[in-house]
Amino acid sequence: MSSHLPLAGKTILVTRSLGQSNQFSDRLTAAGAKVIEMPALEIGPPSSWEPLDQAIANLSSFDWLILTSTNGVDYFFSRLRTAGHNFHDLAGVKIAVVGEKTAQSLKTQNIHPDFIPPNFVADSLVENFPEQLPGKKILFPRVESGGREVLVKELTAKGAEVLEVPAYESCCPQSIPPAAEFALLNRNIDVITFASSKTVQFFCQLATNLLPQPPATYLQDVCIASIGPQTSKTCQTLFGRVDVEAQEYTLEGLTQALIKWATSGYE
Predict the structure, then answer these.
(1) Measured between alpha carbons, how far is 71 from 34 in angstroms, rounded to an integer?
(2) pLDDT tens-digit series, residues 27-41
(3) Which of 7, 71, 160, 223 meets the CB 3.0–4.6 Å disulfide criterion with 155?
(4) Are 8 and 2 a contacting pair, CB within 8 Å?
(5) How many folded domains does the chain comprise?
């Protein structure tokens, strides 16, 4: 019976990108939760394609391509094809990815990455990089604003030459779905999940316009659940706390962390 499932009786607000797959929601529902989805991020093209197009035209000059998100993979390869190229043009370029989902996304392009760091975080990529970095030329297609500055700083500090190019942009949606709005205003939520720093920022932006008090105050009885350290930092900044953090920085890891939270008696 569903009442015996670990997340039975819990209502979980899932913030995610608009149009993103709802596998995470399905996992939570299978564990007994009632899930309400609230897209807190919209993905679109960058303000200009020129820097990426130029980098693609000079692909053979790079030693490595670094991809840190599924959006980075999707937009980079879409633009590669638009320019009349295909993955064969990457023959001399090694590819490093951050994150299991990014690696899976790359495999849908029939490409296997040359390097995946042991932990699904950017810091791990620099620490465990398989080659000496001095003199290496690295192409890094990323989100136009608010990307991983730390990664670029660390690679540059170790002697690499990194070219950052905007491959996509993320922005805040214009509205909150009625079901999510109703649940927030009526305090019908036990948990809010965040899978990126930007979803935390944009959620707070949307919630500030909706709620009668600042989100950190209004949601003080709601469990704040984060996918990993970077997202947790943003939760700390905007909510003053994080209650659950995934040990493995994936959506499956976040599901397991919530099950542990719900069944440990520390609610």
Answers:
(1) 28
(2) 999 999 999 999 999
(3) 160
(4) yes
(5) 2
- What is the number of residues in the chain? 267
Q: Which amino acid is at 113?
A: P
pLDDT at residue 74 in the model: 94
| Domain range for 32 | 2-43+174-263
Note whether 137 and 93 are same-domain residues.
yes
What is the residue whose two structure tokens read 């392009």?
109
Nearest residue to 250 (alpha-carbon basis) of 38, 23, 17:
23
Residues forming beta bridges with residue 41, ordered by sequence position: 17
What is the value of pTM for the model shown?
0.75
- The pLDDT value recorded for residue 267 is 47
- What local confidence, expressed as pLDDT, does residue 150 receive? 82
Q: What is the pLDDT of residues 178-231, one digit of tens each?
A: 999 999 999 999 999 999 899 999 999 999 999 999 999 999 999 999 999 989
3-state secondary structure of 178: helix
* DSSP string over 187-237: T--SEEEESSHHHHHHHHHHHHHHSSS-HHHHTTTSEEEESSHHHHHHHHH
Among 171, 205, 220, the domain-final residue is: 171
List Cα–Cα distances, 219 to 8, 12, 184, 186, 208, in angstroms: 21, 13, 9, 11, 11
State which H helix or E strand residue 94 sits in: strand 94-97
